[in-house]
Amino acid sequence: MGANVFMFYLFSATILFFALLAVTSRRILRAAVFLLFALVATSGLYFLLQYQFLAGVQLALYAGGIVVLIIFSILLTHHISHKFERPPVMKLFSGLLVAAIGAAVTVFSIADYPFKASAALPIDTDMRVIGLQLMGTGKNGYALPFEVISILLLAAMIGAIVIAKKKN
Questions:
Q1: First vs last Cα of the chain: how many Å apart?
Q2: DSSP class of 165
Q3: Is 83 helix (H, G, I), strand (E, B) or coil?
Q4: What is the per-residue pLDDT across 128-141, written as a single tens digit (0 to 9) for each?
């Protein structure tokens, strides 16, 4: 087994492990830290696949932005030791059922899709082209996704505050 394959399995296992811990943890601050580790491992997977820009965006935006906003929201509202109660058995069963259905749909969709190699020429990757694409709204433009991400950051901040402000 080569180093790339080993690192892929290591990053994949790390992502799955910390994602599972983030979902099942009953302490809100620990769940946020577990989410941070899962997002950093996802960035490592992007680096392994040689998607440096996407890995940088993953680190800066998700790991550095959303998780830090969630942690600051928790710390600012003084609910560091907040512990969620155990979910009822019916909610737990329905959540597992929905997760299993989603996983099955995902696996069947990926297995059914006919992946084909593209004959298109690669896009030039100098700084001028990347800068124009970041500011562009047309084909290969990133202005709209950045606006959507800013709304996502706002929604994450509002959600973190709502969760942190819950009264018993």
A1: 52
A2: T
A3: strand
A4: 777 777 777 777 67
Please write the tens of the pLDDT for every residue from 6-61. 999 999 999 999 999 988 888 777 888 888 899 899 999 989 888 888 888 888 87
Q: Which residue has the tokens 């969709």?
A: 109
User: In residues, how long is the chain?
Assistant: 168
**Would you state the structure tokens that stand for residue 26, as one six-digit string?**
């009953």
What is the model's pTM? 0.62
Distances (CA, A) of 102 to 21, 38, 107, 108: 19, 20, 9, 10
Return the residue matching tokens 């899709």: 113
Better pLDDT: 3 or 160: 3
What is residue 78's three-state secondary structure? coil
CA nearest neighbour of 33 among 77, 71, 65: 71
CA distance 113 to 144: 28
Minimal CA–CA distance to 56: which of 65, 66, 46? 46
d(CA 70, CA 79): 12
Q: Which domains does the chain have, with CATH numbers?
A: 3-111 (1.20.120.1200)
